[in-house]
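My current task is to audit a protein record that another person submitted. Alongside the sequence sits a line of tokens, each denoting a local backbone shape. Please read both lines and tell me whether the tokens look consistent with the sequence. Do not assume that whoever made the record got everything right. Thanks in advance; the entry in question is below.
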Amino acid sequence: MIPANLGGVFWSKDIKKLNVAKNKIYIIHQVLAFGEIADIHWLFKTFGEEQIAKTFTNYPQKVYTKASFNFAKKILLGLNFTFDEKKYIKSTF
């Protein structure tokens, strides 16, 4: 179950209808891109670093700003290889 305080991170979905297992790709990317520190702690506790890194790497989502992408990739996940940023970084226009 997703804590109610994470509702703002999932503004495009009904949080009551989100399923942690079925919607993990969406959940992981939304929290990495828009979550606060407490949200990120919940994410790592719920999924674990390995699952988050695999999802981030194998299922790119175009929801990140350049800064949030680099923060998630380098700081949160410690991934130091090259990614196709066009698959992650949303247009600002």
